[in-house]
Design brief:
This protein is α/β, with parallel strands linked by helices. The chain has seven helices and 13 strands. The chain has helices at 30-38, 52-61, 91-106, 116-124, 165-168, 218-223, 227-242, and strands spanning 5-8, 11-12, 26-27, 42-45, 64-67, 111-114, 129-130, 154-158, 171-174, 181-182, 189-195, 200-205, 211-214. The strands form three sheets. The chain has a nine-stranded mixed β-sheet with strand order 4-1-5-6-13-12-11-8-9, sandwiched between helices. The chain has a two-stranded antiparallel ribbon with strand order 2-3. Strands 7-10 form a two-stranded antiparallel sheet. The protein is globular, with a radius of gyration of 17 Å.
């Protein structure tokens, strides 16, 4: 039987985003491909495009969608005006990711979002974001660590009702590289994990199959040999295989 085919979103590097189409480079961390391959999946990179029909056809051809990290989501996408600490945005990335997420949900493909992936999944289903963690009430922890990417940066508490509880337990130390986070979580989503300052670290849809967003970067830890973080990708790829639609032979 063919291994599950996993579509992965990519993005332009900030220095390439404003170049002409012929000189732009699609960028994706190899840690995602390593983690998917080790989980038994076949990773493929999806293009950035405003061709909604092309995105829909691509999603129909894969068994699951991995929404990767990247630049900030445009706050206009969730009904807010940009605040001073809003970072760099890429409209084409937003459009592609939102179309891919909606298409995957409609086609009942499992979805896993990492960092920005969690944030834009939340936006896709009607949630909002903190444009910068400094806009939260209270004093947030350091969520953009200055250390090796495979090192832990803070502690995350996982709720028993989360899908992650069975594979990670109730407490785990994770890395952290973000300045935005989920604010109002989308309807029909469970907050499955948080940090001690209340930042949302995992969300998952209560219905309609496997739709999970994770705020930290498990791929960076998994690709460096962390067997615990690799379990997240094993769980996702297994879900992609279990829900795979019947395809005609030949």
């Amino acid at each position: 039987m063919r291994k599950p085919l996993i579509g992965m979103t990519g993005g332009f590097r900030q220095q390439d985003a404003q170049k002409t189409e012929g000189s732009q480079r699609l960028n994706i961390s190899n840690a995602y491909t390593v983690s998917i391959l080790r989980a038994g999946g076949l990773p493929v990179v999806l293009p950035l495009t405003d061709d909604r029909e092309a995105v829909r056809e691509l999603i129909e051809s894969v068994d699951g969608l991995l929404v990767t990290g990247g630049v900030d989501v445009n706050p206009l996408r969730y009904g807010e005006e940009p605040l001073p600490k809003q970072g760099y945005i890429c409209s084409l990335r937003d459009s592609t990711d939102l179309c891919a997420i909606h298409s995957a949900a409609e086609c009942h493909r499992p979805i896993l979002g990492i960092c920005r992936g969690l944030q834009i999944i939340n936006v896709a289903f009607g949630g909002t974001l903190y444009q910068d963690l400094s806009y939260m009430n209270g004093t947030p922890l350091k969520h953009s660590q200055e250390s090796e990417p495979e090192c832990a940066g803070h502690t995350v508490t996982i709720k028993q009702e989360s899908r992650l509880f069975q594979i990670l337990g109730g407490t785990i130390q994770t890395n952290s590289f973000h300045h935005q986070a989920a604010k109002r979580v989308a309807e029909d989503f469970l907050v499955g994990a948080t940090t001690k300052d209340g930042v949302v670290e995992e969300i998952e849809k209560k219905s309609d199959g496997f739709v999970v967003g994770i705020q930290w970067h498990p791929e960076l830890m998994a690709a460096s040999g962390d067997p615990v973080m690799q379990k997240i990708f094993n769980l996702f790829v297994r879900a992609c295989g279990d829900s795979r639609p019947e395809r005609p032979a030949g």
